[in-house]
Each structure stands twice: as C-alpha cells, then as structure tokens.
Amino acid sequence: AEVLSCQPDAPSVSLSVTLDGRGLSWFHFPGSRWIPQSPELRAWPEGLETPGELLPETQMCREILGILGKQLAGLLPQARGIPVVSVFPARPLSPGGATTLVCLVENIFPPSLTISWTVAGAGATRGVTLGPFVPNPDLTFVRISRISVTPRPGDVVACVVASGRDNATTVVAYWVAPDTALDEQLDTALAGAALALGLLLALLGLGLALLARR
Fold it and tell me: Ig-like domain: from which residue to which, for each copy (predicted)?
C-alpha cells in the first residue's frame, strides 16, 4: 500500500509504502529521496516514482484539502485519535549494559505529534531516533522512537507524547529498570526448587514401585 497524506499541521505532507501494515520506505520531502524504514531494508527504487512524478500528486492533495477544508468547516467534526503509548526494551537486558528502549505510539490520527524522553536516574543516555508516521489499514498511523540508555535498577524512563493543536493532549508511558540480579537469583531458586521436586517425585515413584512388587 502506498499512502499519501496532507494536512494543515506539520508534517504537511507524508508518503509511505507499507506491506501488510509494516513500513517499507518513506519519502523524505526536504531531501527528495526515499528512505528505508529499517537499515536492513532497501529503499523504494527511485525509478518507480521519481520526485518529479510525486510533485503533481502532492499538489493535488493540497488543493483538495484546501477546497474540502473550506466547504466542510463547521459541518463535520474533526476525527481525532487518542494515542496509545507503550515502552519496552528492544532486546533482553544484560546487567550493567546499555539497552535500547522503544516507544511505540499507536492509534495516531491525524499524523501530527511530538515524542520526547525523560530519564529519572543516573543512567547514561545516548542518541534518540524518531521514525516516520506509518499508515495502518484502518487509516490510523504508528510512530516509533528509540533511545539508548544504561539503566540502573529503579531508574525510571518516560516517553512523553504530545498531540493536537498546541500539544493539547499528552500521554505518558513509563518503564522502570528491573533488578536483573534479583531476576537471576529468582531463576536460580526456581531451578533449584524444580530439581528438588523432581528428585522427590522420583524417590516417591521408586518407593511405590517397590511396594507394588511386594
């Protein structure tokens, strides 16, 4: 699916190519080039749609928006989606190591919002990346932001999403760094308990077998 959208708010124009709801490429209008959604993917071939061929389509979208916007102003309510935000690590945590946190924002409409991060704690942070708006089959959009942190147990990381005119709607999702040492101790304790239970059941089975022979 190829979705071209235009709106009064920034970004005024966006264009994405998706496959089964997953983003493949998006068009960077200031740079007039296609950019792959992820590094392992190739960009949409320039020869299929050149920047010159896209300009008439974007101009038509803006003209239709201007005409319909004036005619329907005050007659139809504006569709607005409340963003659904979740924060999770991209990979399993390692004690004392850096990890990449993902902020997934769903149910976006219209595709205009800002994503920022706050970190409460001494964990070091590195570059923040912000992905494009990816359209869904239901005409809502998804956006992803990533941040690299070196968390300590108890550090709190928040993804703050502001949408609407003048950032009227704000949604915040939190992630608390777990104590991986406690998790390892718990895993060891559970493994030991499972081993002890297995030995106990084996002895019980052996005793029942001996009784049955008698």
Answer: 83-172
